[in-house]
Write a sequence for this structure.
């Protein structure tokens, strides 16, 4: 019973969606200020989601059942990540061995849901977007996993989020070492790509392929995808904080660190042009993987 | 006013349907979205796909080809969707009325909710039209 409440309200769906939508507003507002505009009011993202729920749902001719199931797949898995991460901050919650592995798998599912939804929608532009998304997943997963292995080695080879936090609590944050800092830089780019933000938003480029993977979605399924994205905008920075900055996770410090990471992500988003998919691929398999590999070697040397 | 109308008027997503315009109206539409007027303040954003749209901005005089395209576009939007005719051409075809390549006006193809005359209309005129449209919805 408690688990269901955790999943649906705190720290699961309701809480993470509200924080995520507010973070989405911060993103829009900062973007607007950078472009010397005023920007939308704080409740704008809530209005957008509410409006999408009232609109008609269109299922294109020839679309499979997965067209409507895919958004829920992404939403459910991202809520699960938010719940696991939120609960692992609780000092009395011990978690289970290997929950880090589960989180790593669950974090790729929103991207896979996008791919499934886009490729079952029978739209040529959506399939272009889906193929770009597949390439992007292949590109960023390698440095992402390498950085996570760095964190595991730094924390005394434990694969339990609670233990990683506990290790950082006694031995200092992972980011305060050479290997940790390098791994953090690598993983920050991967998070940017996981969120689908510029410069890695080739899969849903509005200007060239008209929304790409989301082109055929309307009404409620589109709202579910937007919610998934909002929850990821809350979950991924929280994941970075737990993995790299776990020294002090009291509420005030947690909020400060979250806003810091959020603003870094937004600034990267606003100061870079979109990369072509081949450029993104060579960026991730080139410099970012090299940085992550150096971090891994340094961590094995004990630095 | 019901909640449905309230949330619709607070977040109008705009799709730009150009049915062979001369491009002047399109430039003025872009002016509305850029920092000078910044309609994102009111939740209006330009979307890439017609499935996401709440408002179709139609510019230009439909010819035999774009007439079919506009009909198809309107059949693809998710309802409720409003149509705004931007510019003299879209409002009443003006000097192209007797032209050989102009089969019909925009409002013969799709139901138009607001007309914004002008050649091209000012950005202020478009914002005024949207405000009147929202008042009408209420």
């Amino acid at each position: 019973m408690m688990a269901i409440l955790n999943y649906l309200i705190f720290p699961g769906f309701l809480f993470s969606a509200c924080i995520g939508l507010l973070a989405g507003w911060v993103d829009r507002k900062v973007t607007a200020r950078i472009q010397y505009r005023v920007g939308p009011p704080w409740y704008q993202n809530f209005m957008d989601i509410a409006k999408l729920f009232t609109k008609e749902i269109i299922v294109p001719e020839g679309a499979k059942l997965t067209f409507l199931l895919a958004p829920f797949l992404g939403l459910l898995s991202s809520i699960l990540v938010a719940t696991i991460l939120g609960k692992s901050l609780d000092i009395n919650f011990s978690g289970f061995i290997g929950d880090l592995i589960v989180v790593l798998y669950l974090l790729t599912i929103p991207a896979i849901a996008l791919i499934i939804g886009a490729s079952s929608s029978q739209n040529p532009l959506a399939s272009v977007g889906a193929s770009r998304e597949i390439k992007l997943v292949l590109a960023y997963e390698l440095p992402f996993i390498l950085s996570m292995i760095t964190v595991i080695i730094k924390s005394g080879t434990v694969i339990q989020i609670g233990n990683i936090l506990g290790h950082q609590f006694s031995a200092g944050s992972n980011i305060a070492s050479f290997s940790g800092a390098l791994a953090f830089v690598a993983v920050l780019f991967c998070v940017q790509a996981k969120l689908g933000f510029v410069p890695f938003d080739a899969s849903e480029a509005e200007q060239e392929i008209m929304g790409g993977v989301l082109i055929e979605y309307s009404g409620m399924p589109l709202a579910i995808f937007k919610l998934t994205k909002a929850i990821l905008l809350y979950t991924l920075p929280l994941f970075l904080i737990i993995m790299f900055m776990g020294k002090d996770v009291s509420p005030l410090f947690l909020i400060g660190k979250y806003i810091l990471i959020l603003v870094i992500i937004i600034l990267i988003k606003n100061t870079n042009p979109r990369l072509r998919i081949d450029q993104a691929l060579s960026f991730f398999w080139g410099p970012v993987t090299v940085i992550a590999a150096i971090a891994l070697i340094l961590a094995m040397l004990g630095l | 006013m019901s909640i449905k109308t309230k949330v619709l008027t607070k977040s109008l997503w705009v799709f730009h349907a150009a049915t062979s315009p001369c491009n002047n109206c399109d430039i003025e539409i872009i002016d509305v979205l850029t920092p000078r007027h910044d309609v994102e303040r009111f939740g209006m954003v330009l979307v890439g796909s017609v499935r996401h749209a709440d408002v179709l901005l139609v510019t230009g005089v439909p010819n035999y080809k774009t007439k079919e395209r506009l009909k198809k576009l309107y059949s693809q939007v998710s309802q409720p969707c409003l149509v705004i005719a931007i510019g003299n051409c879209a409002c009443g075809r003006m000097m192209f009325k007797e032209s050989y390549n102009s089969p019909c006006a925009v409002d013969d193809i799709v139901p138009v909710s607001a007309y914004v005359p002008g050649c091209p209309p000012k950005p202020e005129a478009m914002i005024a039209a949207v405000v009147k449209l929202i008042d009408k919805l209420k």
Q: What stands out?
A: The interface with chain B takes residues 28, 32, 35-41, 44, 47-48, 50-51, 54-58, 206-207, 209-211, 214-219, 222 of chain A (CB under 8 Å). The mean pLDDT of chain A is 88. The longest helix of chain A spans residues 124-154.
